[in-house]
Amino acid sequence: MREDLNSDLPTPARNAGKKPAARAHQEREIQPVVERDGPVATSSDRVLDSAVHAWLDGELPEAAVRAGNTAKDVEFWRGVSKTMDRSRLVRTPEHVEAQIMAALPHHAPQLITPWFRREFVVTPVVAVGVGATLMAIAAAVTVAILAT
After folding, report:
1. Quick one: how many helices (H) and strands (E) in the chain?
2. What is the pTM (predicted TM-score) of this model?
3. What is the CA radius of gyration of the chain?
4. 29: which DSSP letter?
5. How many CA atoms lie within 13 A of 122 on its CB side?
6. Distance CA 78, CA 70 (A)
7. How many angstroms separate the CA atoms of 70 and 75, rounded?
8. Of 54, 65, 71, 112, whose CB count within 10 A is highest?
């Protein structure tokens, strides 16, 4: 079951006889999605009959609870069951699954070594910079000592 909740295609029956500007505004309008299968609960909720519980547990046949005031409860729970059966059939589209699989790394993750175990590489530019800095510090210390 795939429902297109964000369809950009106009619906001919809904837009028949309207001006183009009104149609364009209505197409951009966001409609709320209602996902409720039953009524909203109120403070005067009633408790399910024990026969309905027995039917849901598989202890009674459906015909035994379909009569009388439990018929609405049976219809509600059959609707819930049908909705759950449909949602179990929903699968990820193949192109989305392919994108996910392509984004995964193709090699085992490597352990990150701590800084003190890493290889220490000194490039010539770094060596000259460190040497010049040490010479400048030594010259400054020497000037400070001779000045006192």
Report:
1. 7, 0
2. 0.36
3. 37
4. P
5. 7
6. 12
7. 9
8. 65
